[in-house]
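Progress note, sequence design subtask.
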């Protein structure tokens, strides 16, 4: 349907709504952000399904296969230039973020599509 806005990297991977700066979905091999996960979806889809602390060895947090994608948190960073301090956010792959395999990442996106349909009904697409 004609009007996609770019790669959609700023929308939540799960619910397709603006994700803000909460958690990114990153392909560590390419060091490219492939999506984001918003606060609500992190709480609904991630928090009660596994313990983030258990996924520190590079394997998928659900199935223990290769963790192809990393889900690092955004961290606020203050960047000082000459006279102003610019607030930025950055993701760090050094902090052993949650990892998911391709299968479980796509399942995360597909699993919430019904919920997204409901949400679209509520949202106005003012642009
Ligand atoms: Zn979401
Ligand atoms: Zn998996």
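Output:
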């Amino acid at each position: 349907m004609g009007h996609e806005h770019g790669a959609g990297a700023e929308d939540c991977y799960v619910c397709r709504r603006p994700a803000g700066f909460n958690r990114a979905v990153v392909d560590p091999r390419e060091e490219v952000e492939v999506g984001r996960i918003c606060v609500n979806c992190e709480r609904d889809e991630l928090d009660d399904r596994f313990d983030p602390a258990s996924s520190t060895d590079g394997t998928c947090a659900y199935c223990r296969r290769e963790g192809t994608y990393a889900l690092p948190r955004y961290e606020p960073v203050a960047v000082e230039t000459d006279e102003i301090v610019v607030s930025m956010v950055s993701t760090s792959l050094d902090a052993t973020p949650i990892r998911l395999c391709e299968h479980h990442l796509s399942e995360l996106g597909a699993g919430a599509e019904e919920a997204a349909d409901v949400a679209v009904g509520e949202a106005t697409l003012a642009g």
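The first helix runs from residue 39 to 47. Work on this subtask will continue into the next period as scheduled.
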